[in-house]
Design brief:
mainly beta; 293 residues; 6-stranded mixed beta sheet; 1 helix; single chain; 44% strand
Length: 293
């Protein structure tokens, strides 16, 4: 047995041909006055609602200090006195101090996946996620299916002015379905618009009725963007040049193969009032005409 009074490197030298059965090194007594590392309740993890995190230390009389910005806490950090509200992704780091002795740093990372409740939030989250789908929760609030593409896999959902796409086969949705409820689903960014992948009409938490109504609203081509995908719009006084529709400054492409009953024939050189569904594809603005006059 080799004994050292303080921690450090211990070197043992043995003679040639020495047979060693075991080596035991004692560094001296453990300093039991060092406080225990703080604990977290609830534990670190992924949650679908905001959390109230309580810190505790098993060492009586110890004071806890913590940070929420990823930095290492010190005695100058926030002193813990009540539960910490965690409503977004956050890493809490904490130490306990007792009689000037400092505990090891404890750390807990919380991922808060609150339901997405607006079209803006859905597109922002899809942009954050990127092209590889990730699981989210979405709360549908009287949103309506404005269109189903000829491919039968593209379902356009709108709140009246903004929207996104549900993509997948055998989805079970139809035009004018009204959607309510909170569902867990996969979301990604596709061609710059938000796309929910694989959601079906019978998904748990989703209520589908067949009484949805959305009224097309007059729109300016310049104001349309990815977040408006699926919205029913009216474009007044646009000129068709044989390729695109123009309001004199901005142009939009007619998507004439979107519907089985879509307007497919527009006369070059003629002005139109177009009613249809807006589609944003990469940087291209498109309208799927339902009627023209």
């Amino acid at each position: 047995t080799i004994t050292a009074s303080t921690p450090g490197n211990v070197v043992a030298v043995f003679g040639a041909n020495t047979r060693i059965y075991s080596v035991k090194v004692n560094y001296g007594p453990i300093d039991e006055s060092i406080p225990a590392a703080p604990t977290f309740s609830p534990a670190a993890g992924t949650y679908t609602s905001a959390q109230s995190v309580e810190l505790a230390c098993a060492t009586t009389g110890a004071t806890i200090y913590y940070t929420t910005d990823g930095t290492t806490p010190t005695s100058e950090s926030s002193e813990y006195s009540s539960a910490i509200s965690v409503g977004e992704n956050m890493t809490i780091k904490a130490i306990a101090i007792n009689n000037e002795k400092v505990s090891p740093v404890a750390s807990a990372a919380y991922v808060i996946n609150l339901p997405l409740t607006t079209m803006d939030a859905i597109l922002a989250k899809a942009t954050e996620i990127g092209g590889t789908a990730d699981e989210v929760q979405i709360t549908f609030n009287n949103w309506v299916v404005s269109g189903v593409g000829l491919d039968e896999v593209s379902v356009y959902v709108t709140d009246g002015t903004k929207g996104f796409v549900i993509y997948g086969s055998d989805h079970g949705f139809a035009v004018n379905d009204k959607l309510n409820g909170t569902v867990t689903c996969d979301l990604k960014l596709y061609k710059n618009f938000a796309e929910v992948v694989g959601l079906k009409a019978n998904a748990e938490g989703l209520t589908v009725t067949h009484d949805g109504v959305v009224t097309p609203a007059a729109a300016s081509v310049a104001d349309l963007g990815a977040v408006n995908t699926g919205a029913p719009i009216i474009l007044n006084g646009v000129l068709f040049d044989g390729s695109v529709l123009s309001d004199g400054v901005n142009s939009i492409t007619p998507y004439t193969t979107f519907y089985a009953d879509a307007v497919t024939s527009l006369e070059s050189g003629k002005y139109y009032n177009i009613t249809g569904i807006y589609v944003h594809f990469n940087t291209t603005k498109e309208v799927a005409p339902r009627s023209d006059d």
